[in-house]
Specification:
By secondary structure, this protein is of the alpha+beta class. It has helices at about 10-15, 25-35, 65-80, 100-115, 140-160, 175-180, 190-200, 215-230; strands spanning about 15-20, 20, 35-40, 45, 55-60, 90-95, 120, 135-140, 170.
């Protein structure tokens, strides 16, 4: 078979099993769900980006990996969340976990100055996110992530509105991977997946990431999240005013009459 070392033929690829199902069956289900489409020429396309742009402020530098393709098409559709893509095997992230909107806003200039690919946001609606706020920096390999961690930790520790008690960690891949495929230190990557992914992605129409929302719209979303969770530091950015008037409360027992 021509190209056997780098690419499966399409028939073999669609018959490749991920758990109890095949890639072909998974893709058909994804089409039925409306997650992807298939053109007359047999090429697939994502129906929408897997990321909600309103949650996130994205840095100007691209991630080291084609995340929309790997996460949105391969993991969610072709693999039906049954395997971590081979292309994600070297993805590591430094994560800063701001506890308030005040801290999240203070992390942004650090992220901009650091020069790494990053996203910062308030992802209360993200099913697999722990906590409402997060800033993630993307790296090709654990060694890169560790080197960057040291510099980012120093910057966070020295920032007046942040400090040593702001949580930071290094993660591998996406939280959704661990939710479905187990702990990231036990991820396995079948060598055949490299050829499978080469075949699938050459038949995938261009999958640009989410169009970045205007920074003002993103920040307004962050304000709403802070209000929803009772994080009053949002008032730093509203002149101390509440985002909306408090509702009227009523006593459960009527006051005694004089």
């Amino acid at each position: 078979m021509a190209g056997e070392d780098s690419e499966f033929d399409l028939e073999r690829t669609l018959a490749y099993r991920i758990g109890a199902s095949t890639i072909g069956a998974n893709l058909e289900q994804a089409i039925q769900r409306g997650d992807i489409t298939r053109d007359e020429d047999g090429q697939w396309a994502l129906s929408k980006s897997p990321l909600s742009s309103i949650n996130w402020r994205f840095g100007p530098k691209a991630t080291p990996f084609p995340c929309t393709t790997l996460f949105g098409f391969l993991f969610r559709s072709a693999y039906d969340r049954g395997a971590v893509p081979f292309g994600c095997r070297n993805c590591f992230k430094v994560q800063i976990k701001p506890r308030t909107l005040r801290e999240l806003n203070a992390v942004v200039p650090i992220a901009e100055m650091a020069g790494h690919a990053y996203k910062a946001g308030a992802a209360l609606s993200a099913r697999y996110a722990f906590g409402p706020y997060s800033t993630l920096f993307y790296f090709d390999g654990l060694e890169q992530a560790r080197e960057a961690y040291a510099n980012l930790r120093q910057a966070v520790d020295a920032a007046p509105l942040l400090g040593r008690d702001v949580p930071m960690t290094i993660r591998r891949g996406c939280a959704e991977y661990e939710a479905h495929c187990g702990p990231s230190d036990r991820f396995t990557f079948a060598q055949e997946l490299e050829a499978v992914e080469a075949t699938l992605t050459t038949r995938l129409r261009s999958t640009a990431g989410p169009a970045a929302a205007h920074p003002h719209a993103v920040f307004m979303h962050w304000l709403k999240v802070a209000f929803q969770i009772g994080d009053d530091t949002y008032r730093d950015f509203t002149g101390g005013r509440p985002l909306q008037p408090a509702a009227v409360d009523y006593a459960p027992v009527p006051p005694e009459k004089n």
